[in-house]
Automatic annotation (TrEMBL):
This is TonB-dependent receptor. It is found in: Cell outer membrane. Residues 118-220 form the TonB-dependent receptor plug domain. The keyword Transport applies. It comes from Flavobacterium akiainvivens. Its main location: membrane. Keywords: Cell outer membrane, Membrane, Signal, TonB box, Transmembrane, Transmembrane beta strand, Transport. Belongs to the TonB-dependent receptor family. SUPFAM superfamilies: Carboxypeptidase regulatory domain-like, Porins.
């Protein structure tokens, strides 16, 4: 009986087990984002059985065992979707995630919680709509560790971008830029419309950059442009901004006419010596030359975009027009832009593709030779140093100015022209603005196709092809009627002036093929991919300068006024012609692997082999690699009640290379043209000759950067408080340096790998939602970084390479200022005082023995930004401050304004009114006729603190609510006011504390910008 019961029970149990298994089935699907692109890292679990969970792979694919009637829950960062299981076996989902939670590295896309790497993402709302010609300028103070300094107010001017400290001495120091999978040759972005950008990812550590191999040593900036969405109706968006730009104020306190005339009279030189004290007191003419040479610029920026999508094709198209007047007369930038991005997929979703095409045309008008002290060429000299008692009405023509310059005075003795023609400076510069043309026309086109085909649910193949085309035509004209041309006219030269034209074309191609395998089983996920990449770039340039123009028929831009060659005067009108070309090539193969367990633990690895054209065969190949890992502590069971929404620790270590040697161009090489000799200039006895240009070095090889990174990310209080802290240690070995050689070798140096350098630092990023409800939102944000740079090794006996005021020395920061310490003014006689090598005071220091390490550089140690975002019932206010601390630069503009030898020739700072006298012995300004002039040339007298805090950006506006637009044809609208560089707190006295130079000499000032904007959607 017992055995019979056991047999019946076993039969029933088997029946129910079989029934239960019959109810279980395997379902699958693909999770995509709003653009239809696969979304990896999405958690898929069975609601009734939370332990049954899988994660989507790199193709967005998942498989999971579930019973009919149960519920699948899809979770991605802050987005959750659920669906009840029916008889279907495929369940696809579209999840529109917040872009700030998506990490894009070009070769792969993942979510922030599942990323092992140090990456900062900036989204479209922080980039678009701002009155900047280049998107690079909008990144300042938004990314910890990223230093951006422009140092010029020229519209569209290039910026210097440094990530985590300088990574080279003579090689490239800027990040690699990748736009829609296309690596760019140069960092000139004036032709690209920032309103087209969806997001920017800044890749910092080796875990993220090693996949770029030889080009990733200084970080990578990945730009993703906007795309359309599938199954979306047509949406038209217009964005318009009108801006007013004006010069920022400086603190030089230049003198007015009465002050300067009084000083000239006391000094005994200049127009003031011709006037009585009463005439000076009643002198009312005081010209502000800044107002005459500069202006308030008016700018406009308009973009119209169209987005739409069907079941299998989505499109984004934009047309833009940008016109910015520079604050300096006759300067500006115009840009026309067009973009079309397509996203497509096959009906069975096995094949997906994207195309990105942009065409841009820009015209840039520039001033001549900014950054020089030429009184007849650089307009900034006149704005800074022009005599205030001169007036613009005195200027009539270049011929008139030449006469005054040569005679030392004007025909009208009442005009205040001194005994030297240099006092004419502001008038000479008015003539320069009238007679000089500097223009650059640029065509910029980027095109890319990227496709992927799923062979199976786990295996895919893909590839991309991209091209970057840049063509620039330059025009430089100096009129025959200009003062400068008249000044340098020689006997027998009947025609003056010149016209120079230049042409350059840069075309690059990038081809990538890949195969990827993604597999998820249970709580495990594995993604493996292998790639090959081929990069080729071609450069060609041509230039032509015609000396001598016939003013009767000359028209800028054509050759009607060119003077034909005449054997009788061969040296006057012979044109100068130049041409060049270059090619750059790179072949690479690489692989990546990422493993994840239960979204708790993740490891990744990358290895890449690069072959570069720059090096000899023995050093052509370089191998770069990285390993990385993370621990999502918040996913542990013991953290269930800890209050953390995210707590992640990650680390990475790897090597990355730098092939851009001896300069920053993609074409820079030990010898670009592969010739060992160059034409000697000047020639010998009017005969052409050849001399050694450089010595070859077959041992030259890559710079290699080794970087360790440790990061912690957290979110608490329902994600109200969010933060990231990074620690990094980055060492560069085999630095590109040129060591000096004796002149008997026919050259003065040989390039090679001679040193190493280290950057260590910490980065912090914080955001806190103070208020977060339907009506009122307030978020505070802060980011900061500290970087310590040190030169570790220089391969020469002294361990140092010394310059005039900077030094490269082991154990010290890169290009540390190396100068004689300035001690002040001698109260006994008004001379300058210095400290010698023993610390004793001296009026006559020795530049060879008394220089010291200062511990100061023009690379900031501290930098970052802070601000807030607030909104209340449609109103919004955003602020963004930037700060830089412990940065030093030489202020040579101030030096020129405190130079008493220029009294009677140039304007002076009112500081000289406090000069030493027998009645004013305690002062920081020496006597007007101090006897040790010139001794401060190698001192730190004008080495000034350039630290600052700046209100970089502020925006105040109103977002119209949808119910207010219901009866209109608009689906969205907002209006806003903006300000850039509104005010700056700094000890720096010049036009702008932000600069990418160690010294400032009459540079184009960066402007303050006030804007009004409108954005509407149809």
């Amino acid at each position: 009986m017992k055995s019979k019961f056991t047999w019946i029970f076993t039969l029933l149990l088997a029946f129910f087990v079989q029934f239960a298994f019959a109810q279980q089935k395997t379902v699958s699907g693909v999770i995509t984002d709003g653009d239809g692109m696969p979304l990896p890292g999405v958690s898929v679990l069975v609601k009734e059985s939370p332990s049954t969970v899988v994660v989507t792979d790199l193709n967005g694919h998942y498989e999971i065992s579930v019973a009919k009637g149960q519920t699948l829950v899809f979770t991605y960062v802050n987005t959750t979707r659920s669906v009840e299981v029916t008889d279907l076996t495929t369940y696809d989902q579209t999840m529109v995630e917040e872009l700030k939670e998506v990490v894009i590295t070009n070769y792969k896309t993942t979510s922030r919680p599942l990323s092992n790497d140090a990456i900062t993402t900036v989204t479209a709302e922080k980039i678009g709509g701002r009155p900047n010609a280049s998107f690079i300028q909008t990144l300042q103070a938004q990314v910890p560790g990223l230093n951006i300094s422009t140092g010029s107010g020229q519209p569209g001017a290039n910026s210097t971008v440094i990530l985590r400290g300088y990574g080279s001495i003579n090689g490239n120091v800027e990040p690699l830029y990748v736009i829609d999978n296309i690596p760019l040759n140069v960092d000139n972005f004036r032709s690209l419309n920032p309103n087209d950008i969806q997001s920017i990812s800044v890749l910092k550590d080796a875990g993220a950059t090693a996949i770029y191999g030889n080009r990733g040593a200084n970080g990578v900036i990945v730009v993703t442009t906007k795309k359309g969405s599938f199954d979306a109706p047509l949406k038209v968006t217009y964005q318009g901004v009108t801006s007013f730009t004006e010069m920022q104020n400086n603190k030089y306190r230049t003198m007015n006419s009465r002050q300067l005339l009084g000083l000239e009279k006391a000094y005994g030189r200049g127009y003031g010596t011709q006037l009585t004290d009463e005439e000076i007191a009643n002198y009312n003419t005081s010209t502000n030359w800044k107002d005459e040479l500069f202006r308030t610029g008016v700018s406009q920026n308009h973009t119209i975009s169209l987005t739409s999508g069907g079941a299998n094709l989505a499109s984004f198209t934009s047309i833009g027009y940008f016109d910015q007047e520079g604050i300096l007369q006759n300067t500006g930038l115009q840009r026309f832009s067009f973009r079309n991005n397509l996203s497509g997929k096959s009906k069975n979703d096995k094949f997906t593709y994207t195309t990105a095409l942009t065409f841009n045309y820009s015209v840039s008008n520039t001033a001549s030779r900014l950054g020089e002290g030429a009184v007849n060429i650089n307009p900034v000299v006149g704005a800074n140093n022009g005599l205030p008692y001169l007036t613009p009405g005195m200027y009539q023509s270049g011929a008139q100015l030449l006469q005054w310059y040569q005679t030392g005075s004007s025909p009208d003795e009442t005009n205040p022209i001194g005994s030297t023609g240099l006092s004419l400076t502001p008038l000479l510069l008015l003539n320069q603005l009238d007679t000089y043309i500097g223009r650059s026309n640029e065509i910029k086109a980027l095109a890319n196709f990227q496709g992927k085909y799923k062979i199976t649910d786990d295996l895919s193949i893909g590839g991309s092809f991209g091209t970057d085309f840049t063509e620039i035509n330059g025009l430089t004209v100096s009129s025959p009627a200009s003062f400068t041309e008249l000044l340098y006219q020689v006997d027998g030269q009947d025609y003056l002036g010149f016209q120079g034209e230049s042409f350059s074309r840069d075309v690059s191609f990038n081809v990538n093929t890949n195969v990827s395998y993604s597999k998820s089983w249970g709580e495990h996920s594995l993604d493996v991919a292998a790639f090959t990449e081929y990069y080729k770039s071609h450069f060609k340039t041509f230039s032509y300068t015609q000396n001598g123009l016939d003013p009767k028929v000359f028209e800028p831009g054509n050759g009607a006024g060119y003077i034909p060659f005449n054997p009788a005067t061969p040296n006057f009108y012979i044109p100068s012609v130049g041409a060049g070309k270059g090619s750059a090539g790179l072949f690479s193969y690489f692989a990546t692997a990422d493993y994840d367990y239960s979204q708790k633990y993740g490891v990744g690895a990358t290895v890449r082999r690069d072959a570069s054209y720059r090096f000899a065969a023995t050093n052509r190949w370089g191998t770069f690699w990285s390993v990385s890992g993370r621990w999502n502590i918040d996913q542990e069971d013991f953290m269930e009640d800890a209050g953390f929404d995210l707590l992640k620790v990650r680390a990475s270590y790897g090597t990355v290379g730098n092939q851009n040697i001896i300069g920053q161009s993609i074409y820079s090489a030990a010898n670009n043209s592969r010739t060992l000799y160059g034409l000697i200039s000047p020639s010998y006895a009017n005969m052409p000759g050849y001399g050694l240009a450089q010595l070859g070095n077959a041992d030259l090889k890559w710079e290699t950067t080794k970087q360790f990174n440790l990061g912690v990310e957290w979110e608490v209080f329902e994600q109200r408080l969010r933060g990231t802290v990074e620690l990094y240690d980055k060492t560069v070995d085999d630095l590109f340096l040129t060591l000096p050689l004796s002149g008997v070798n026919g050259t003065y140096g040989i390039p090679g790998n001679y040193g190493s350098m280290q950057n260590r630092g910490v980065e912090l990023q914080l955001a806190y939602d103070v208020l977060r409800n339907d009506d009122f939102k307030l978020t505070l944000n802060f980011n900061g970084s500290y970087n310590k740079n040190k030169v570790l090794d220089i391969a020469n006996e002294s361990g140092r390479v010394e310059g005039d005021l900077q030094i490269l020395a082991e154990g010290h920061p890169l290009n540390e200022f190396y100068s004689i310490p300035y001690a002040g003014v001698n109260p006994a006689n008004g001379n300058l005082l210095f400290y010698d090598a023993e610390g004793n005071l001296t009026e006559n220091p020795n530049p060879e023995t008394d220089k010291r390490f200062t511990g100061k550089t023009f690379f900031p140690k501290f930098q970052g930004g802070f601000g807030f975002d607030a909104s209340y019932k449609g109103f919004f206010l955003t602020t963004q401050f930037s700060y830089v601390a412990d940065i030093w630069r030489y202020d040579y503009d101030l030096s020129s304004l405190q130079d008493p030898t220029d009294i009677g020739v140039m304007n002076q700072s009112a500081d000289l009114l406090n000069a030493w006298t027998t009645d004013n012995r305690v002062t920081d300004i020496p006597a007007l006729r101090y006897t040790n002039q010139g001794t401060d040339e190698f001192s730190d007298r004008y080495l000034k603190d350039a630290s600052y805090v700046r209100l970089r950006y502020a925006s105040l506006g109103y977002q119209f609510k949808k119910d207010l637009l219901d009866k209109t044809f608009l689906s969205g609208a907002r209006v806003y006011l903006q300000a850039e560089n509104l005010f700056t707190l700094t000890k720096w006295r010049g036009w702008d504390a932000e600069s990418n130079r160690a010294a400032d000499v009459y540079q184009y000032p960066t402007p303050r910008i006030l804007s009004v904007g409108l954005e509407v959607e149809f």
